[in-house]
Amino acid sequence: LTPHRLAGRKVLITAGATREDIDPVRFISNRSSGKMGYAIANAAIAEGADVILISGNSNLPPPANAQLISVYSAQDMYEAVMFNIESADIFIAAAAVADYRPAQVAIQKLKKTAQAELHLPLERTTDILGEVAKLEKRPFTVGFAAETQNVANYAWEKLSRKKLNMIAANQVGKNQGFDMDENALLVLWEGGEQDLGYGLKQDLAVDLLDLVIKRFMLTKHT
Ligand code: PMT
């Protein structure tokens, strides 16, 4: 029986992949399925939280008892997060958000030309997690780090540079992390770490949330 440690608490979670339009029929995206973020949403619901799940592209059924906000691009996700962040106790960023988007979205479908190469200028998107971490009255803020190499080093660096309360790091690859039922998470916070090992995303989500709740209770966010 889950003890409902988050009863009356508001938890905001991002999940899934953003899409950045190139033209009316093409976009840049990634392999995120939403499974990790949706599993965290379900774990938070089981703990009695009021959950808002802000989801990019995903084919998963919406978790029962969560408020689902479907978004398309990184900019849409940023706006939805900022609109809902006030009074959130915990923010968990599991979405795979595009870091870059086409600098210009073509109004008409791009035509093939005689040129052998096509160069597509990209511009930075807003770092949603970074903006939440900068808020004066911010929630307990948990980021993810998806890396193909040097996972722990990059994650420690991201934890301190973005001033996060916690980071869940996963090694990703073509058949690892993204769009799989299993994952492996290394969770870091200032002064501590726990390797949650390899397992089903549903089980890892429960273990991750347990760590989040324990750290959340110890901080000023009580
Ligand atoms: O969805 P699944 O198929 O289940 O796959 C799960 C996952 C591999 C996508 C998930 O476990 C994961 O690692 N999510 C984060 C993916 C990612 O984009 O990581 P990153 O290292 O590029 O980004 C770092 C953090 O910043 C993430 O918390 C990300 O949500 C956030 N971010 C990134 C860019 C941006 N513009 N805004 C952000 O908030």
From TrEMBL:
Tree of life domain: Bacteria
Biological-process GO terms, alphabetical: coenzyme A biosynthetic process; pantothenate catabolic process
E.C. no: 4.1.1.36, 6.3.2.5
GO annotation, cellular component aspect: phosphopantothenoylcysteine decarboxylase complex
Binding site for CTP: D99, K109, F144, K158, K162
Keywords attached to this entry: Decarboxylase, Flavoprotein, FMN, Ligase, Lyase, Magnesium, Metal-binding, Multifunctional enzyme
Pathway stated in the Swiss-Prot or TrEMBL entry: Cofactor biosynthesis; coenzyme A biosynthesis; CoA from (R)-pantothenate: step 2/5; Cofactor biosynthesis; coenzyme A biosynthesis; CoA from (R)-pantothenate: step 3/5
The DNA/pantothenate metabolism flavoprotein C-terminal domain, residue ranges: 6-214
Region annotation Phosphopantothenate--cysteine ligase: where it falls in the sequence: 11-222
Family: In the C-terminal section; belongs to the PPC synthetase family.
Function: Catalyzes two sequential steps in the biosynthesis of coenzyme A. In the first step cysteine is conjugated to 4'-phosphopantothenate to form 4-phosphopantothenoylcysteine. In the second step the latter compound is decarboxylated to form 4'-phosphopantotheine. Catalyzes two steps in the biosynthesis of coenzyme A. In the first step cysteine is conjugated to 4'-phosphopantothenate to form 4-phosphopantothenoylcysteine, in the latter compound is decarboxylated to form 4'-phosphopantotheine.
The protein's name in its UniProt record: Coenzyme A biosynthesis bifunctional protein CoaBC
Taxonomic source organism: Beggiatoa alba B18LD
Part of the whole protein covered: 181 to 402 of 407
